[in-house]
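With this grant's support, we have settled on a layout for protein records. An illustrative entry appears below exactly as we store it:
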Amino acid sequence: MSRIGKKPIELPKGVKVELKGQQVKVSGPLGSLDMDCHPCIKVTVDGSGNQIEVVNPQPDDRMSKQLHGTMRALLANMVTGVSKGFEQKMEIYGTGYSVKDQGGKLVFQVGYCHSVELPIPKGVKVKIDVPATRGNDVPAKFSLSSMDKCVLGQFAANIRRVRPPEPYKGKGIRYADEHIQRKMGKAFASGGA
């Protein structure tokens, strides 16, 4: 039995859940999300409509055990997404690096001979706080927000993959709360006869 899977999901005010077979639709103040649950897992809403329960009817089946906690976590993320939303802050370090929003695309100048364009997925909002870096100390900053945690996380990972932070000077694109383990550069011996 999954400890996470057994926990009921509390529904905040203004959030409604509709069940149609294995499809779950969650709607709230920020919009609505839907997901098809795996056939191994049953999702129920209690009579008062304040809680969602995820039930594993086959506790001995290995696949059901694995999906129990996963389905509960995905549903909890949907409930949080439609009520509060999710945000991911990102930073770009490196002299001359910049980011700008150009007609539904994020355009990065990150040390390549060309600019890198990434289309912004539907439902993701981008807010650029600082568009360009100033030296190696002041980073460019932007934030991504969405009600769908999966789409937001994947887009943030795709952005980071454009120029992952390198360990010597820390140049590149990183999450705002990410710590980069730094390495020492080459040590040159002093010249002596």
